[in-house]
Specification:
heterodimer; A: alpha+beta; three-stranded antiparallel beta sheet; about 20% strand; elongated; B: mainly beta; BH3618-like; nine-stranded antiparallel beta sheet; about 10% helix
Chain lengths: ~80, ~130
């Protein structure tokens, strides 16, 4: 791991166009600003991990899907008939 | 309002789904006997499949608006009709939950899909499903 010492308002640049800047330093937290192109996903690690875990828990083998849908039937209100 | 939610063809997720980044192409399958559920089925060998439901079926007040960045990722215009899906998990204890925290949004116009990971959200990845 690369380790840097930065002061408030100092930044590091990653690759072509990703900037990570220290905005504020508190007692036990650091406020960080990330500038990246729109197509570069930037997430909090714990949120990303939570969504990975949720996807893993929901993934099914394609052959198991029919049974799964049958088990889920009735768990959601039926669509309104208009 | 029409409930037909199948998208005809293969939808590409340019960034994949977190945890399944290697599978980027999914068929979106809907049929009357599965309503209100929709199935997302990976097209490649050993790809996973998911059951999903329109998050508005789970929470009528669920907001289906996207910011400019997500619209750009979908190559969508502001007024374009998009398909919103919350991935559903069936747990061993019999509970079923829907991921309202990170919905899947598909643009049928460009056949692109993304899973939205908002910086902040009041919703949970395991919102309980139950008949009201």
């Amino acid at each position: 791991m690369l380790v840097f010492t930065r002061k408030v308002d100092e930044a590091i640049v990653i690759g072509d166009g990703i900037e990570v800047k220290v905005l504020r330093v508190g007692r036990d937290s650091v406020r960080i600003g990330v500038s990246a192109a729109p197509h570069v996903p930037v997430h909090r690690r714990e949120v990303y991990d939570q969504i990975r875990a949720a996807n893993a828990a929901a993934a099914a083998a394609p052959t198991a899907i029919t049974d799964l849908v049958a088990r889920l039937k009735g768990k959601v209100p039926a669509p309104e008939v208009s | 309002m029409s409930q037909s939610s199948a998208v005809d063809g293969v939808v590409t997720f340019p960034e994949g789904l977190p945890g399944f980044e290697e599978h980027r192409q999914f068929m979106i399958v809907a049929s009357p006997d599965m309503e209100p559920f929709t199935v997302m089925r990976g097209v490649e060998a050993r790809a996973p499949a998911f059951v999903a439901v329109d998050p508005r079926m789970v929470d009528r007040a669920y907001p289906t608006t996207l910011d400019r960045v997500d619209l750009a990722r979908l190559a969508a215009h502001e007024q374009e009709p998009l398909l919103w899906l919350a991935i559903v998990a069936a747990h061993e204890d019999g509970r079923a939950t829907a991921n309202l925290r990170a919905p899947v949004v598909i643009n049928p116009g460009t056949m692109r899909g993304i899973q939205i990971i908002a910086v902040e959200s009041p919703y949970r990845t395991d919102h309980p499903l139950s008949v009201k």
